[in-house]
Design a protein that fits this description.
Elements (H helix, E strand, L loop, with lengths): L4 H15 L18 E3 L6 E3 L3 H11 L5 H4 L6 H4 L2 H6 L2
Antiparallel strand pairs: 1-2
Bound molecules: zinc ion.
């Protein structure tokens, strides 16, 4: 006896539930995406996906003044702490 696509899906999902291998799906059947890694701005605590470095940079600029991107996002832009500032003047 043929089963409908919907029945087949339900059966597969039950199988997955029993085996513990079923990925999370929304009620409409779409897979639920894993949450993206985010970072909190050190200044305003805004949460931004930290894989978009340009976005972090632009956000830091909105604060202006002393708030460089290295200050807002020390984890994503560690350059400031490690920057060899003394080396530049020594070579002249
Ligand atoms: Zn901020």
């Amino acid at each position: 006896m043929p089963i409908s696509k919907k029945d087949r899906r339900t059966r597969d999902q039950k199988k997955g539930d029993a085996a513990g291998t079923r990925v999370a799906v929304k009620p409409n059947g779409n897979p639920v995406k894993a949450p993206k890694a985010t970072s909190l701005c050190a200044n305003c605590k805004k949460e931004i996906v930290n894989t978009y470095l340009k976005q972090l940079e632009v956000h830091a600029e909105t604060h202006g003044g002393e708030w460089t991107k290295e200050k807002c996002w020390p984890k994503e832009f560690p350059a400031a702490a490690a920057a060899p500032a003394a080396e530049a003047s020594a070579s002249t």
